[in-house]
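Trying the structure run again after the queue cleared.
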Amino acid sequence: MKIILSTDFSEENKVLLPYAIDFLKDAGGEIIIFHAYMDNVFVGSNSYPGNMDTDNYFTTEILVELEKNSQRVMLEKTEYLINLIKEEGANNITVRPVLVSGDPEDELIELSKKEKPDLILMGTRGKGGKRFLEGSLVKSVMTKCDVPMLFIPNNYSWRESKEVVYATDFSEYDVETIDRIFNILKTYKPHIHVIHFVEKPDNQDEAIKMEELEQAFLEKEFEGEIHFQLVHTDNAPQALKIFCERNDVSLSSFIAYRKGFFDFIFKEKLDKDAFFNLNIPMLTFKDID
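Done. Tokens:
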């Protein structure tokens, strides 16, 4: 198994490390630590004196210094991760740093195409505490990368991804996506709650679709359990939060479509904030072409 761990070198990103190690410690594999150091220029530009033209200010000398500093920090992060792996006794895990200059989104997408990893790990906050999900980076990346992406909230404490909620609007890709969830989380033998929110209790069409989805898994073999449930509510975000709390859900999952994003998937029942406000990891899949 191969994982890309995308980091902006913030302390918050340390929460990603236990996940990367845990996914690999049984079967082994490689962790690629990725950083695009030009990100520091854009994110950190507000630390420079006012009225400064940053386009002219960043001379060759300063960019060279920026690269040197990024190389130094990358070495520190790599050594830190290697030491954590040694503490776990996971000798079957290798670490490879990838440091580039460029736009973080473009470079990450290109790296994923080149390396074809099984999973990409990212945080949901960047430098300065900005929520990635409030900007365009995460939304854009998750709809462009063919690779499954796992986003971990800031200050989240690692725990097994055992109880998983998969929110469906009956996509044609549901069966394949759920199969992929089981495969990624097979170490935990997860219990996947497949849920769909229904506003009208007598909606037989949605009940039939859920039954058909359940039937598709009757003869499948997978490590874990699966449960299908229609949730009757006129407030899907609140119902999602209550469901996750009652079932001790430790990971949410969904398909990220390129057109319309969450509004397209859930027809305004749920938006990105509904999942973000759960404050639990999110496993996303790009729609299948």
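The longest strand covers residues 29-36. Worth checking whether this holds up in the mutant runs.
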